[in-house]
Amino acid sequence: MTETEPLAMQVHGIGKTFGHVEALADVSFSIRAGEVLAILGDNGAGKSTLIKILSGVYDADAGHLEVQGEKVDFHKPSDASDAGIATVYQDLALVDTRDVAANIFLGREFTRGPFVDRKRMYEEARAEIDKLSLKLPSVKVAVGLLSGGQRQAVAIVRAASLGSRIIIMDEPTAALGVTESARVMELAERLRDAGLAVVIISHNLQQIWPIADRFLVMRLGRVAGVREKSKTTVDGLIKLIMHGETTTEGN
Amino acid sequence: MITRITSRPLVAITAVITVGLLAGCASGAAGPDNSDKTGEWTAAEVLEGSDGRVAAPLFAVPRNVDAFEFAFLNPGLSVPTFKDWQTGVQDAADFYGVKITQTDLDLKYENALTAYGTVAVKSPVIVGSGAGAANAALLAGVEADGAKLVLIDQDLEGAPSFGVDNATTGEIGGEFLSESAQARIDDDWAGKNVVYVGISAASCEPCDVRVQKGGEVVAEKLGLESKPGFLLPDPGTADQAQIVFTDYLTAHPNDVFVILGFGDGAAVGALNALKAADRLDDAVVGSLGGDISGRAALRDPSNATTFVGALDFNPYQEGWNWIEAAIATQLGESFAEYDASTVLTPENVDEFYPND
Amino acid sequence: MTTIITPVTASARRRRFFDVALDYGLYGTLVALIIFFSIASPYFLTPRNLTNIALAVAVTGILAAGFTAALIAGQVDISIGATLGVTAVVVATLNEKLGVPWPLAALIAVLVGLIVGLVNSLLVVGFAINSLIATLAMSVVLRGAALILAGGQTTSMTDTGLQLAVNSRPLGIPTPVILLLGVFAIGWVLLTRARVGFHVYAVGANPSAALRAGIPTRKIFVGVFITSGLLASIGGLISAGQAGGGGPTFGDGIEFQVLAAVLLAGFGLQGGTGRFERALVGVVLVGVLLNGLVLLGVDAYYQYLARGVVFVLAVVLAALATRKASR
Predict the structure, then answer these.
(1) Complex ipTM value
(2) Which chain A residues are closer than 8 Å to C11 by Cβ?
(3) CA-to-CA dists, residue C141 to B195, C119, C136, C148, angstroms
(4) Domain B166-312 has what CATH class?
(5) Fold of B31-163+316-336
(6) Where are the domains of chain B?
(7) Total structural domains in chain A?
(8) Which of A214, B16, B253, C106 is 20 to 30 A off residue C3, Cα-Cα?
(9) pTM to 2 decimal places
């Protein structure tokens, strides 16, 4: 499940500085297909900055990235998505006034000549949703009218439908209640089972523990440690988050 | 529940509009009928019928005139002169027994043609406007419908008109100002530098013509060497004119001024500026228009030696005269020239306007 | 294993009622006015009068089309009135004072709108200035330019070519009306059926989401400003044709009429939402109201009041639309 799976992405020595603040330093880890990697850390640990570098919003000041074994250079978000990395941000980046289908295919609408092929958009949207065994009542509803969990689902469906190999989710359950959070986590598992690499940033260890396979703990801009689930505990992770690497409990 | 909440204000506003429309409709009059009258209206009757405001009819209107359908495109009711036009037009229409539809261009002269289109459904035989609001396209549109265009205070080729000619009024203003100025030059202004200042208004071409002509007359009569100065307050209201002229005063601490305002507002603004700077003795001021604000300034004793005259346009009479000119044109007759040569002064203003 | 996600909530149903209420409000008021005026005046429902209404709203409507397109993209362009004025002055000056044949003069004048659009987009996209502020500043500059170019006067065109063209009625329909309908037809197709229209709505509703989805947001902004400027210029040509000349005060204040009509039509100022064709309905509604009031001989001051009431109605509807659009 882990060492034997192909490497979806390799992160080598990433660093990022904003003015005098070193937001990230010497960050290295790997992301594997068919696994859920949880990124943990307190506020200010550098999780958001790391995600933005992986998704092409920021340029790294040091280090490099490899996707499927090949070195890549991201200068804008479309570079990352072209390389197969889809990101679902905390604000979901949805257009509330447009319907579900329009949001799933935002920026890559199906056309017949110069016109949008709405029929096909609805059909394909329905297909993508069914692929993930989701039940959304209608693809013609404006996204702004959906519940938090449904909106999250639409954002994830969009990421999945991009044909990406890696899906990164930034705090997907932060604004959701217990039931809807559980359902989003189920969705993440389904993506993993379909062979994608799923990376989830979370500050809710209890919620992410059941579904994650590996945990990357960030602390003060550096990697505090990487743990396989089988080789650690919730308490162990908490200690790592708060105090950094103090024991040799390791990968 | 929400549907009810949102529809209530809509219903309320619709009700208000409906009531307002019905109230406004009540202002429409029934058709007049003159068929059993004979002879023509005399000047004395017109004077009485207009409460003493119209001393000179342009045409002796027959008493049994048909209830013609006329239309008037008022340049902008926000301007007192044009508001007086509207009142004069309406009163004359009621007096003589003709029908009039008036509409307000609100100073958007480019809409003249479409405004005509709106009133054209009533098939008016004579259409009026003036003061620069009419244009060749309007004339073409009116004539295409077989009607005629008659204008006040505007020269447009192909359209009969009357009223104040901007150049002439400017010259008259220059004349009476020069007279007063000369008296001062012979007296306390001896040895001082005399400057002409014309106060026009931004984007008002007729206004520019008036003060320019006035400047030419003053320069000639007083032998001024310096080029006349022009100020363009925007808009040409008294308060803006005061601001602009105050700055001008500051820039000319040692000069004396001969000032012509395109209208009464400009002159009043200059007077207020002079008062504030305690330099009323440094100027003689004149205006073109003679509206209520100008007459008030003439009556003000503190202006006595400074404000020397206001040329009386008598816009109410212009409005009234328009109906007469329209009737004359419709009957194929000609109408008289408009006489705007009365200069109101502090001495005679109460004689001409006893009812202010 | 299928996941059942909670169904559409009650608040969603409520919001659909808002949409319906706004719809009925706008079209309902228009129909009510038409019925009222038809009964109250024998002149109202005549072909000539209906054509007049269309003519009277043509320029405002064409400007509203451009304004609405920009508004949907989240931008406010209030330089449209000044652009109209400058265009009218340019075409009249070129033709009358420089002897340029009127079709060429018209073409050059329309380029003015294009340039204005480009400058607006430079200010908003390049320098990140809020569109309201940027276009307000531009409108002041353009008014000044028009006044200088025109010497403060209206330039009459003795060559009646443009006048005849603008006032012509191919197939009995006045040219400005054909242009108005054409502009709205093309705009409607582009905004509701073409891909670029989808993107304009997305950019207006959530520019960062659009950017992240790979939509060229800058190009969209440039596009809508150019469209708004070009349409304002076309409005300027029509005005010049209708007036037989061009003056620096043309179009002064027309942006408020456009704004009132667009707000009345339920467009929120935040962008990304609103049915494009409603802008035309809003413009027509105001035109019907004013036309009816003149035909009924309503006192001019009551007409002002009616305009004011319509504006208040517009503002209230805009507030409702904004509340509906925000979550």
Answers:
(1) 0.80
(2) 145
(3) 33, 12, 9, 11
(4) alpha beta
(5) Rossmann fold (3.40.50)
(6) 31-163+316-336, 166-312
(7) 1
(8) A214
(9) 0.82
